[in-house]
Amino acid sequence: MSASTDLKRTPLFDVHTASKAKMVDFGGWNMPVQYSSVLEEHKAVRNAVGLFDVSHMGEIEIHGPEAQQLVDYVSTNKAAKLKVGQAHYSALLYEHGGFVDDILVHKVSDTHFFLCVNASNQEKDFEHIRSSNRFDAIVEFSSERYAQIAVQGPKAAETLQKLTGTRLGDIRYYWFADGEVAGVPARIAHTGYTGEDGFEIYVAPEAAQGIWNKLLAAGEEFGIKPCGLGARNTLRLEAKMALYGHEITASTNPYEADLAWIVKMDKGDFVGRAALEKVLHQGVTRKLVGFEMKDRGIGRDGYEVWMHGEPAGWVTSGGPAPTLGTNIGLCYLPVGKAVPGVPIQILIRNVPVDAVTVPTPFYKRAKS
Amino acid sequence: MSYPESYKYTKEHEWVHAEGDTGTVGITDHAQHELGDIVFVDLPKVGSQLTKGETLGSVESVKAVSDIYSPVSGEVTAVNELLATSPEKLNEDPHGAAWLVKVKLSSPEEINNLLPVGDYQTYIGA
Questions:
Q1: Which residues of chain B have pLDDT under 70?
Q2: Under DSSP, is residue A75 helix (H, G, I), strand (E, B) or coil?
Q3: Which residues form the domain of A22?
């Protein structure tokens, strides 16, 4: 039996193979890494619009009179502050302060919260939340009920608007609306993982192929491209968005990962709070910082970072930045050194290559 | 893209074109296609000694690094400077303008153990 037969497939699998996408094993999912060219797909999102199948992402829903109390107990951001129709970025932590996962929390109603979680973490997340549930709330694993399609880029709204009566201009950034796309019920969220304007649409799996094809047709005049995980990664790295297993892991905490903004200490107890209080009291020893290669070479995930002839940290994500034409990355360094302008070396196949720490995000879109 | 009859190929997807005691080395169209957008090429310096089957350098696509293995032994006499500034040429013309290095062959008979074009094309299912 070949390993590939064990890989999970999204409802759009047949579409990907029919369009000759290059497929890879991504955390147990058979996913498209590229359709044509990572660089061309990347540029389509920055300049026009791109379409991503992100149906591998998981969904967990929390219902009940104390749904918000449970969300606030298991996540770091403050769910009590969310209005109905609003979403935010947050994290699930272990008691020791390390990451279980990073998540998006959507408040559907006072008694219903909708969580989007990472594909390879979804079962773990579900068990984690359920085991912390001492509230009048029900935790539902609902990944099988949703496909997710991301429409991203400056022409994303124009493309999607052709297929929906929901006025996209009325959905503020990090808000969402339940409406229809191509006549099918859909949750339309003004969110994304590219650093570009765009929407993430949650629909029933059986509706995914129809919506995918209609979006491609709707975006044709703008030069829409289907995009794979390769472009998704270069886009998110330029925007300095964290990737689980890289910037954030069970052994890193939000303060080290430069994610203090999603930790709200002005709320009640939550899983990991005591550990974070200790971290705040003692201070972090290492911190995430961006770098840019100065000499020829690409500092890749896992490579050692050296300073003054000694190992000082490691690269969490690194690669080319197609929009900038440079080679960039993120790395952990001792806290005093994790500021822009510090010369470092990345050990590339045992050769130290010069780089320098730089401000992040590497790329920020112009506000329209 | 056609695979020249006069080249010899490896299962690691390099090619060598021998003319007298000089061999020009590159990677195949199949290799560049599998790698995707090539963004960086790391090559040895002129004067370096290469051993057949050992690492010659590396090619990086957006997502990954791949080692290139030398299909022949000998001394590097030229390095394709084009690839330092335009690595994407390796996607466009891997059998021509985007050759990697020229080698003064120390054991020209090594060529005989490499794959002829037909065998290589069968190997990659072309």
A1: none
A2: strand
A3: 3-55+146-238
